[in-house]
């Protein structure tokens, strides 16, 4: 039976047809075809996996990082990708990244606020300088990203902001007080940004991803430093480490239209580490 007959007979609704066309289009063109995506901290680990997957699904990717060498090497591998050297603590650099993206690629659809670093230290051991460093990279960096991406996305007709927090924001982890505080700020900030964008009818979604341990250069360096009796190490041994691609698939979902009804949400990816 022809497609029109099936619609008129009630066998297929218009929504079914639109869905089938969308699935077909995505399978041919990619799930984020044509979207312009900025990924901070994109030279390594989770950010690099996001860049590879989203680029493979048709996105035009702008990688930013303080690590020029690795960032440029990855951008050269990915079709149409651009690398911009960028310290996420620097407000003027953020303005430059957004303006360059809009100018060169015609708009902005997705921002992944991923850049980060970890330093060990309890509340007694951590210096104010260390506390400020981690919070300026992760909490202030994410704030600046949202601040300058929102107007650019609103101009493009909407978008998706994906903030990378951590399960450390859900638990008490005594050994990483500054990291935990920064990731907690990202978690709370996400809801504020999501509400603001919805109230303004910007069609911008903002969600936060909270990963457990995944195998990246950051995790490897941290594991090498952790004392064997440390609780965090037990938890990693118990729940295992995910692969960067596991987080990238979640980022892809949030970047794509498949998640169009999701905003202000917290998506935990930790193989059950925090489920009880
Ligand atoms: N790997 C994990 O298990 C895990 C778990 C939870 C959350 N996270 C978070 O995921 C994100 C990525 O971590 P990763 O494991 O891929 O680490 P990674 O060290 O492999 O990559 C982090 C990247 O961020 C960049 N970066 C650091 N400071 C920066 C700055 N000031 N400006 C711009 N770029 C900067 C680094 O150069 C690096 O390329 C981080 O926010 C991290 O906290 C990771």
Automatic annotation (TrEMBL):
Its EC number is 1.1.1.51. The keyword Oxidoreductase applies. Pfam families: adh_short_C2 (PF13561). GO terms for molecular function: oxidoreductase activity. InterPro entries: NAD(P)-bd_dom_sf, Sc_DH/Rdtase_CS, SDR_fam. Keywords: Oxidoreductase. PANTHER family: DEHYDROGENASES, SHORT CHAIN (PTHR24321), OXIDOREDUCTASE UCPA (PTHR24321:SF15). Belongs to the short-chain dehydrogenases/reductases (SDR) family. This is 3-beta-hydroxysteroid dehydrogenase. It comes from Luminiphilus syltensis NOR5-1B. The lineage of its organism: Bacteria, Pseudomonadati, Pseudomonadota, Gammaproteobacteria, Cellvibrionales.
